[in-house]
Write a structure and sequence with these properties.
By secondary structure, the protein is mostly helical. It has one domain (11-193). Helix content is 50%, strand content 5%. The protein has seven helices and two strands; from the N terminus they run βαααβαααα. It has helices at 31-34, 36-63, 68-87, 128-132, 134-144, 153-168, 173-193; strands at 13-17, 110-114. It has a two-stranded antiparallel sheet. Helix 2 (36-63) runs antiparallel to helix 3 (68-87). The longest helix is centred in the N-terminal third of the chain and has 28 residues, at 36-63. It is globular and about 55 Å long.
Length: 212
């Protein structure tokens, strides 16, 4: 029996979701309108995320630690983004409108957590986000789309799922599991690129709504 799953340190990033077999056939067609308030908020949140990451870079460089308040904020931004992606055209996994909060909402069907490390390498912080993560970013470009001419695989799967919902009322489970796996890979890479962990993302597609 292969032990490949256990040959890499467990990721500090936990991305999970709840499969809903009772999704609306047509609601996905108008989610782009319903989610506009979230898109506006996320625009400012992502700008703040980048600024906080720059501040965290210097904090790690001089102290070897990611300040807890900054870490909590950036986890919240990633969590918010994942909930909106899960509701909209990243997954189309739920019809429940995402809450406007950085905090985890236990009864919402999409969750993201990142374990905060007590210490981070001062040397790795100099090369993680632009050199070491580069091969992973190329993979993520395929998953989420790297340019305006390139549709990401996750969004393409969500579109096909929407078409399936429209005509059959069913979200194919295999398509759903693969979609969540792609988002899980992306979240691990984003956490590493944002200096939130020293654990290098594995080249492994962990499919399904729950972490392996």
């Amino acid at each position: 029996m292969s032990t490949a799953l256990f040959e890499h340190p467990r990721s500090p990033v936990t991305l999970e979701a709840v499969y809903d077999p009772g999704l609306s056939r047509w609601l996905w067609l108008v989610k782009w309108v319903l989610a506009i308030p979230h898109y506006v908020v996320l625009l400012f949140l992502w700008i703040a995320f980048l600024l906080v990451t720059v501040i965290a870079f210097f904090a790690i460089l001089f102290t070897g630690s990611y300040p807890r308040a900054l870490f909590t904020f950036n986890v919240g931004v990633l969590r918010w983004g994942w909930r909106v992606a899960y509701y909209t055209y990243g997954s189309l996994g739920t019809d429940r409108y995402p809450p406007f909060t950085l905090a985890d909402v236990p009864d919402y069907p999409a969750h993201l957590e990142i374990a905060r490390p007590e210490q981070l390498s001062r040397g790795l912080v100099l090369v993680k986000s632009w050199l070491l993560v580069l091969p992973q970013l190329l993979v993520v470009a395929v998953i989420v789309g790297g340019t305006r001419f390139m549709v990401g695989l996750a969004s393409l799967l969500a579109f096909y799922a929407g078409v399936s919902l429209l005509f059959t009322g069913h979200y194919p489970r295999g398509m759903y599991d693969l979609n969540i796996g792609l988002h899980r890979w992306t979240a691990r890479v984003m956490a590493y690129a944002a200096l939130m962990t020293d654990t290098y993302p594995p080249y492994r597609l962990d499919q399904g709504p729950s972490e392996p």
